[in-house]
Each structure stands twice: as C-alpha cells, then as structure tokens.
Amino acid sequence: MSIMSTVLYRKYRAQVFDEIIGQEHITKILKNAVKDSQLSHAFLFVGSRGTGKTSTARILAKAVNCIKPKKDGNPCNECENCLAISNGTFMDLIEIDAASNRGIDQIRELKERIEFAPSKGKFKIYIIDEVHMLTTEAFNALLKTLEEPPEHVIFILATTDVHKLPATILSRCQRYDFRLGNEQEIRSTLEEILKKEKIKVQEKGLDIIVRNARGSYRDALSLLDVVINSQSNGKDPKKITIEEVRAVLGIPEVYMVNDLLSSLIKGDSKQALNCIRELEEKGSNLAQFTNFTLEVLREVLVSKISGEDIKEYTFAKELSLKEILFLIKEFLNVERELKNTTNQILIFQMLIPTFLKEENEVKTPPKVIQVKSTVVKSGTIVEGRSESVEVINTDVINLCIDDVQKSWKSIVNSIKPLNTTLFAFLDSSKPTSVEQNVLNIEVPFKFYKDQIDAPKSRELIGEILFETLGTHCKINCSVNDSVRPKLQSSADVVLRNVPVIKKKEVEEKKQIKQDIEAIFAGM
User: Fold this and answer.
1) Which of 324, 341, 454, 520 lies 20 to 30 Å (CA to CA) from residue 494?
2) Type and span of the H or E element at 376
3) Do residue 60 and residue 79 come from a single domain?
4) Containing H/E element for 29?
5) In whole angstroms, what is the distance from residue 20 CA to residue 22 CA?
6) Which of 180, 161, 252, 184 is nearest to 219 (CA)?
C-alpha cells in the first residue's frame, strides 16, 4: 500500500452526506433534492479551503448516479457506480482544476463533450474546482453552456473567492455556503480519528493542532498526519506530547512570546534584540511565530474582555484593552510585511522603535508602553496623537508659558512644510497662558479659529507640540480683535464686487469681509 493512500484526510474522507461534518445546513437540502428528484443543473459551492466542498460534490455525484439510493437521499456506497466514484474510475464524473486549466480551450473541449450521453450513470457530472480562476473568455464560454445545458449534465462549481465570479455565472447556479468548523467540531473530529488509529495526543498538543487548523477540517487532518508520521521511529509512537507537537509543527515555546512581548512593553530594546536574535539562531519560522503570537494575543484579549486571568502569559498582567489592541495591530502589520520581504528578521527588528522614544523627546523615561496615539495616565485617557496608545510616567510635565512663547516661532515654522495654510493662520496667533496643560492662544479672526479648531489641524498641532515641548497638551483658541494686523487694501478691492441685495445680508457680508481680510492678512 502506498504512503498516499494512508494519508488521513484521504483515509477518512466523507463518503456519504451524513459524514460531512459541520455542513448540515447544506447536506440536508441536498439529500432532499436527491430524494425528490428536484435537482438543479448547476450548483455553486462556496467556502474556505478544507471545509468539504469537493467531498460534498463527489457525494452528490454518487447520490444522483446511485443504482440503489437510500430513502433519505444518501448514496448506498455499495453499488457499482458508487464504488467507481469512490475509486476515481467513474467515466461520467469529470473533475477540472480551473487553477491549471483556466483557458477557453478547456471550456470549448468541455462544451464538445457534454453533448454525449452518460456511459454508466443517469447524469454526467462536471466538478470545476477553483472556478474563479477561469479567464474572462472562459467564463463567457461557460456561461453559454450554463444557460442551456443538456438534461443529462450537472455542473458543480467550487470556489474560495466567490467575489471574483461574474454575476451572470452566480445567477445561474444554486449557491451553498460552506462554513469553517469551530474548535469543538475540529477537536471532536480529531479525537474520533485518534481513537480509531489507537493513538494518544496530549490534550494541550491537540489544542495546538486545532488552533493551527483555523477551521479547516482538511488542514487539521494534514497537521495531525505530520505529527503522527514524525513519531514512527520514536520510543512510543502511539503517545505524543505537547513538546513533540511543538517541535514537529515549528510552534515556538510560550516563553519566547512572553519574553519578546515583555521586553517590547517595557521598552527594553536590548532584551528585545536578544529575543529576536534567539529566534534567528534557532532558525524559527517567523511567519509561524507571528501567527502564534497573534493567537496568544487573541486569547489575552478574550480573557480581558471576559474578566478571566491567563496566568500562562505573564506579559499581559498590567495591560489594558487598548494596549492589547495596539499589540495586535502591530503584529498584524508584521504578518503582512513578512509576505513582501526576503529580510524577515528586519521586520521584527523594526518593531522595537515603535515601542520606544528617543531620549531627547521626553523628560521622563517611558513606564510601560509608548505608541503614537493617546496618553494613558493613571487610567485616564487624554487626547493626543491618532491611531495608537502611549503610556508614560504618571508625573505630568507642567508647561511654562515663558517656555512656550520662546518656542512658539519654532513650533509654527515646524508646521509650515506640513501644512502651509495652517502655518499662515498660526503665524498670526499668540500664546497667552497655560492652565493645567491647556495652552491658550489668541487669533485675530474667527476664520482663523475655525481652521485651527478643525480636527486635522488640532491633530497636527498636538504632534508638533509634543515633539517640541516633550508633553501633550490641549489647544484652546479664542478670537481677540486687538491683535489684528494692519489689513492690506486688496481685501477691500475684492469686496467692492460683492453686492448687497437685502439689509439682512449686511451681517453676512461683514463676515465675508472678515474672512477675506483674514486670508490676505495671513499671506
């Protein structure tokens, strides 16, 4: 017997509808359709890989061609046709992999062959896997076949990317959506197979296999197969420990995730580099490490939301939900970047500056975690930069108006290359006082105030203030007529052409005049 014939996902492939796990919402309908002879000429099976699309398609091919079908719509699995389909020798079942046969020539050949009557069964079945891979021309050719197929032909299309299919194809098929299995369903499937194989896998080792299957039954069986085969020469191949599962699947030790996340959270760049160096020296699969880290962070997030405590992950003890979300976001970025580079270790090393600040940017060292968004002080959220969270020492850096006034010109000039319009408004502003880290500034016109109070403007000003003064503060902008600059006559020239139709529009014209004057004054 060949090795391929003993592969678990083939050995335990479902042979009747009732053996398809987790897709009862589909198999129930298909059994009734077979039982009542209410069959569509075209089916579309949609779902992630390893959810049973192809297995269900083959079982459907069995059921409609079974010589002695069961009363509930299942195939007998014993007749000549059923056995031929199971063995892959049934002439009236044609399977096409659209990923490698995606051109119009293959579809034209299909069109020529479908006119011939079935040689053995009632129906000639065409299963087109990954149908979304067909070319536009091939889709057009297939569409004409789907519109008026011979009565003896049934098409079963399968895809993992249904959004890539033309609407004209979708409208001509009965669609069935296959769902991913949940962890309990995947686990039950593996436990049943292990019982039949008389093999024991340590509970936590089985947890790792279930998590890494990510809802795919086939992936779960493939992973289990790898683990079992790796033990064939071991001392006790019938008993598999969590350590053996980790070693075979390349799953990193929990301590490695704990150490790296802890060092990043503490801002310990040296320790973080050591952790990354250890990953490199051990030849760790960095994509696998990232996936495992994200899974750990997911568990921590769920535990925080539910109020449970996960003692295994020491790095998470003092983290807030926002901080966990920031970590998840950063490692999702790592996961994406790893796919686009050959220097994967650099992507990990680039994580370190994200959690650090240069010494000249803050007057007190970071306490827990630094990022670019809001500031968390003693559990209070304070407005600041967008998109992330920054935790610093609980000591507030009190601002002095004298320091602000001395630095104001530099602050305004820093904004000029980023936003010239905002620079023009701020160049005519004046810092007047600081109250509990709220900076009060005065501007000559309401138009200026409206522009400075815009969310994007406040965000940019806040960033520049933080970079210059080393602390976050709010801006309170007010209008003071006495600080208006001498106006240029150009504004009056513009206003001469603005007509006043009604008296009640005088006030509106005054406001327009102020706005235009403000623009000229800021140039």
Assistant:
1) 454
2) strand 374-377
3) yes
4) helix 24-35
5) 7
6) 180
- Classify residue 369: in a domain, yes or no: no
Length of the chain counted residue by residue: 523
Query: How many domains are contained in the chain?
Result: 5
Q: Helix, strand or coil for residue 387?
A: coil
Helix (H) or strand (E) holding 474: strand 474-479
Residues 445 and 497 in one domain: no
DSSP 8-state symbol, 118: P
Containing 285, the helix (H) or strand (E) segment is none
Contact in structure between 451 and 518 (CB atoms under 8 Å):
no
Residue 205 lies in a domain: yes
- Alpha-carbon distance of 431 to 469, in angstroms, equals 14
What is the bridge-based pairing of β-strands 200-201 and 239-240? parallel
pLDDT of residue 332: 92
Predicted local distance difference test score (pLDDT) of residue 404: 85
Q: Write the DSSP string, 189-245.
A: HHHHHHHHHT-EE-HHHHHHHHHHHTT-HHHHHHHHHHHHHHTTTSS-TTEE-HHHH
For 108, 133, 213, 221, 450, the CA distances from 158, given in Å and listed in that order, are 19, 11, 21, 21, 56
User: Are residues 90 and 114 both part of a single domain?
Assistant: yes
Q: Name the amino acid, one letter, at 427.
A: D
Given 249, 272, 288, the domain boundary residue is 249
Residues in the chain predicted with pLDDT less than 70, given as ranges, are 1-6, 232-237, 357-398, 483-523
Residue whose tokens read 């089985």: 206
For residue 484, give the DSSP letter.
P
Provide the residue range defining the domain that includes 434.
Answer: 401-483
- pTM of the predicted structure, to 2 decimals: 0.59
The residues that bridge with 474 in the sheet, in sequence order, are: 438
